[in-house]
Fold these 2 entries.
Entry 1:
Amino acid sequence: MAALGYLEILDGKGAVSERIAVDSFPLTIGRAYGNQVIVDDPFVCPLHLKIFQDEQGRLLASDLDSVNGIYSASSKDRVAQLVLQSGSQFRIGHTTLRYVSVDHPLAPTQVDRAVKASPLASPLASPYAAAVAGVVLVLLLCLDAYLSSVERVSFARIIGEPWITVSMLATWAGMWALASRIIVSRFNFAAHVTIACLALLTISALGVVAEWTEFFLPRVPMLWIAGLFGYGAVLAALLYGHLGAASPLRRRSRLWAAGAISLVVVGTSAISDYAARSKFSTVMAFTGVVKPIDAAWLPATSVDEFFAGAEKIKKELDKLAQKAKSSQP
């Protein structure tokens, strides 16, 4: 016989812990084993209530002179009888029940984010994207180490300095991958590496743009704006991406979580910056950005060439001194 509806026993969070098919009416609910629906609750009577259809076809839940009675979910008042419709909730003892008909509307099916997406469907999850982003980041870090060095550089030194940043990035991505493994049963390490690399590349580009903008437009505090709002936006995007690969949260929930954390960090930074200011300071009230040419672009000479040039200048100065001395009376 097909079920007419279902009685659902809900837990404290409103999730269904048990579902019982209703094949016919009337039916009784209580702790006794003779009931059609048995509820294991010490605050429920052995024969607590009866559900039946009246002459008008309405579905009613009637109290059978129980000790603790029936309570509607929408009211805290005890009732002797309750009209049930599909989705109606009521409480007996410490147990919440819900009646639903077989044609009760269902919530939309959620996307299973634990299922690994194909590289075409999710480019960030592709190991090729992680490899490309990592190589680009390492090359830019090596270029920055080479251009900013004022000493004689070696290949080992240029390669060695960026690995501190790379190791920290790998540790960060590994921690998120471990969280992904615990929550969604997949590491998603490539996706976390790609997201972290893109965030670092964006921060680097944002810093360069802010420095040059303030260099050409000193009145615009671009470094402060980029440090407060730009990096805050990058942090929010970073957390949003990591949460997407490490949790089954919906897009709106991830957006709210990432935005809230970023807002807290930006607000704390702004408050700290404001509190650090004093009424009297020897520091200029405005900032000035100097953009010298990178050391690697400047022409350099060897030590031997330097001393040879100095010796040449010395000889010329000696000749000029002798000439001036001979011309004196």
Entry 2:
Amino acid sequence: MIGKDAMRTRPMIREIVVAAGGARPVRADLRTAAPGVSRPLVVVCHGFLGYKGWGFFPYLSDRLAAAGFHVLTMSFSHCGVDEATGRIADPEAFARNRVSLEIEDLRRVARFVRGGGLGPGAADGGVWGVVGHSRGGAVALLALPGLPEARSLVTWSAPSRLDRYTARRKAAWRREGALVFADPRSEAPLRLDYAYFEEIDRRRAELDLLAAAARLGAAHLMVHGERDGAVTLAEARELAAVPRAAPARLETLRGAGHTMNVRHPMERPSPSLERAVALTESWLRMTLAGERTDAR
């Protein structure tokens, strides 16, 4: 059982590098308030333009670790971010990213954990949870069939479909070979190669998020801001309406946007973020540690 004493303990943080052959490494931060003690593991996945140090991720991860979970917060291999500065310093890696690469990154981290890479006690005999924001939530939903240890999933601002582009934009994307846009964390314009969409188009059945939700064997909490302009609340309701065998719940945050009203770097947690964190912690306690909770 996860006790109150754990919540008073500041978690330790250790960086993990997961490498495999010639593949780009996955970097992650392991947070724990009880090294070597057997407790559930929670893996946290960022979304598009994110990384493990973006905005609310350190705060969320600290809170979950202080609540008694071992927390592994990932940076996907092709996020292109310089971890020391938070800037997108490798635009070529960013351009080559694919949904399948991020799915494989998550499964690679799972293999690393199964192999004892985190040390004793860090996986609690195979009881895991996964938390994903935006595209990270979609990746987690698609990857979970390869993670039999995962009993619980929490998605924030997750989409119900990966093809989110107008016919006009897709035509221009195909013609020009890349989707080009600016971001304040990059000195030069960023691009996303057309191969990103080609994969989504070619593998529609395999990357169907609604079908993945229907097959999901883990309990699933969906947290979504009512004012999310990037992924509308209608998509969250579509995901929540999918019939499934495992428990599922949608929590709507009044007045919240796509990133819970937080920007990078985060100066202070917003009320929407605090609510999302409380809901997430409560759900993970209930589904991984078997505790009764009343955070709704």
